[in-house]
Amino acid sequence: MAQEQGEPGADVRVRRKQRRNPTPKAGRNLPAATAVGLGMLFFVLGGLLFLPLGFVLIVTAFAVFGVWEVFRALETSGTRLPIIPVTTGTVAMPASAYFGGLESLLFAMMLSSVAALIWRSLEGAAGSARSIFAGVFTLAWIPFMISFAVLPLHTPVGETPVGLWPDGVVPPGAWQIATLLLLVVANDTFGYLVGASLGKHPMAPKISPKKSWEGFAGSIAGATVVGVLAAIFLLDKPWWFGVVLAVGMVAAATAGDLSESMVKRELGIKDMSSILPGHGGVMDRLDSIVFACPVAFILCSLLAGA
């Protein structure tokens, strides 16, 4: 006989192995990823809706961890990031956006870039051009773009709270950020579910083979439902506002995901780190958000009178 009686066949052994290993074909440990994702969302939304300065500190912490991961990844390719001025700028930008608004954020970005240029130039000429470019790129990619999530909380009259929201009233800007986060989560969740089960046509096989057009369609559909509900019940806007915001968020989040995948492929790494169980590194979660933040800010500013 080709197989002894009682000996499990190859297909049976594979099924047993799959039951022991919770990681599905999309490459994640789903229970761990779900628990960590929900925990982060609860933590971030709690700070946003109850303690605005706490939300700014959370954003800053995520940005610092993201910069640290990029610093380590670049070192493997022989590029030395001017880490001190870059980290200083990373800490300064969210605070500048919160207390000073868009002009202060732009000034902090410019000052941080000049500081990185001067700092690296003083260390010597060898590899300086590559290091300076990496420093400015990292500043623009992570702290500058993610600081747009803080801008809606700034009050032009200089009364930006440092404690709880005045009178316990959550302002429209906070609900705008909450909608952004919910749309990014919807994009990731529905894209993953549809892509893992139905995905057959890769969007960019050379960059991210597991991202499919079917998953992208699932992201659009799921985010549209969430966007319409959020526009009506959270933002007090017409339903079509949620559709526009959802499409913009999915496009931006997908571009961010593919951009980080391209960077990782160029550096020859799978994940930026393993700090978040089931997700990889902080940047593996921020990749969608950093692109979505400025797009959400621009769309909400353009459609403010809707």
* Radius of gyration, CA atoms, in whole angstroms: 22 Å
Low-confidence stretches: 1-8, 17-26
Strand content: under 5%
Strand order of the largest sheet: 1-2
Number of helices: 10
Main sheet attributes: strand count, strand direction, barrel closure: 2 strands, antiparallel
Report the structural category.
mainly alpha
Topology:
Layout: H1 10-20, H2 30-50, H3 52-76, H4 83-100, H5 102-122, H6 128-146, H7 172-198, E1 202-204, E2 208-212, H8 213-233, H9 239-267, H10 283-302
Antiparallel strand pairs: 1-2
Helix pairs in contact: 2-3, 2-7, 3-4, 3-6, 4-5, 4-6, 5-6, 6-10, 7-8, 7-9, 7-10, 8-9, 9-10
Properties at a glance:
306 residues; globular; 3% strand; mainly alpha; two-stranded antiparallel ribbon
Can you offer a commentary on this structure?
The structure is a single chain. The chain has 306 residues and is an all-alpha fold. The protein is built from 10 helices and 2 strands; from the N terminus they run αααααααββααα. Strand 1 and strand 2 form a beta hairpin. Helix 7 runs antiparallel to helix 8 and helix 8 packs across helix 9. It is globular, with a radius of gyration of 22 Å. The N and C termini lie far apart (74 Å).
